[in-house]
Amino acid sequence: MQLQSTTKGNTDMASSTFWKSWLGVLLLAGLQASAQNVQPIRFIVTFPPGGAADQVARIVAQETAQILNTPILVENKAGASGMIGADSVARAKPDGKTFLVGGNGPTVLNQGLFSKMPYDPEKSFTPVVGLAKSPMLMFVRKDLGVSNLKEFLELARKRNPPLSMASAGIGNITHITGEYAAALMGFKVNHIPFSGSAPAVTALAGGNVDLMFDPLPSSMQQARSGLTVPLALMDDQRFPPLSQVPTLKESGFENMEISAWFVLLAPAQTPAPIVMSMNKAVNLALTRPELIARIQGIGEQPLAGMSPEQAAEFIANERQRWLPLIRQLGIKPE
Fold first, then answer.
1. Vertex 315, ends 310 and 317: CA angle to 5°?
2. Average pLDDT for consecutive 10-residue bins of the chain (334 residues)?
3. What is residue 96's DSSP assignment?
4. What would the DSSP string read from start to end of 273-311?
5. Residues 164, 169, 171, 176: is their CA dihedral positive or negative?
């Protein structure tokens, strides 16, 4: 009887262990399935990897994903002056899973450059929050023979043929800024477009082009290392890593603060609670010291604290500023 009782006890124990093991397997499988079923959020960048927009997007996405406890993937959809990536967001479901890292070009400038666009910059998106901005830097090749803005203007105003000016592409903010600055400062340029800032800056550092206006993320390192000569920063205050470079305002040119900027946009008709959830998460991320240091380290300044309404107003003000200027300067894409 004792032997039978022991056998039965062992059987019950084995049965209990068997079902506990299966229960653990089922629970683990359920958790894995649940994690796999969490649909990631996508940040669409309209420029190639490695540029300012891409760097800002990845820095902000990493921090925001932790706050939301949801993975955020950064996807690069470049081409057609940013319109390919922007159009993909305009056509996406307004379910909070797809956002556009919108910059000057696809959000504002293209509206003045192209008679036909696959989306409406004013109606196809819902502004969510500001991300970052980078002041434009005016710089020249180191063997041009000038060391400051005054010397440059003395040379540029009498130069015939005009100095060559590189840009990241026709109609790009680097191109429009250069044409605008040249007109206001009273000199002419021979525009040389490149396929992005990196090759343009490389050409200038190599002495093949005279002048460029470019955001800090792609121009700051060459200026700091002495490969180029920085003349002025197009902002209302100096930038600490380039504290020796004066602003254009210090040099006597008012109202010439120009930045390459980035805001987060959702497809039109995205529900307000979704917009506000992302707004709060990104704004929280932009207050964290580690993120601020990383953003500033690449030559950007966070656009922290913007409400959706303020982001919309920011874009509207940029549109009001630049569209008349594009028409006035007569810039058209080839």
1. 90
2. 46 49 44 58 90 90 96 93 94 97 94 94 97 96 96 96 93 93 95 89 96 93 94 93 93 90 97 98 97 93 96 96 92 76
3. S
4. HHHHHHHHHHHHHTT-HHHHHHHHHTT-EE-TT--HHHH
5. negative
Mark out the alpha helices in the chain (DSSP H runs): 2-36, 52-68, 83-90, 104, 110-113, 149-156, 173-185, 197-205, 216-225, 272-285, 289-297, 308-329
The pTM score is 0.82
Helix (H, G, I), strand (E, B) or coil at 246: coil
The CA-to-CA distance between both ends of the chain, in Å, stands at 98
CATH fold for the domain made of 135-242: D-Maltodextrin-Binding Protein; domain 2 (3.40.190)
Domains 41-133+260-329 and 135-242 share a fold: yes
Enter the tokens of residue 169.
């592409």
What does the domain layout of the chain look like in residue ranges? 41-133+260-329, 135-242
Task: Give the H/E segment covering residue 127.
Answer: strand 125-141
- What whole-number distance in Å separates Cα of residue 315 and Cα of residue 322? 11
Report the greatest alpha carbon distance in the chain. Answer: 115
Q: According to the model, what pLDDT value does residue 81 have?
A: 86
The answer to whether residues 222 and 205 touch, using CB atoms and an 8 Å cutoff, is yes
Q: Output the six-digit token pair for 300.
A: 């950007």
Q: What is the pLDDT of residue 37?
A: 61
> So what's the pLDDT on residue 38?
76
Fold classification of 41-133+260-329 (topology level): D-Maltodextrin-Binding Protein; domain 2 (3.40.190)
pLDDT of residue 24: 46
User: DSSP 3-state assignment of 245?
Assistant: coil
Q: Give the separation between CA 58 and CA 75, rounded to whole angstroms.
A: 10
Q: What is the pLDDT of residue 83?
A: 93
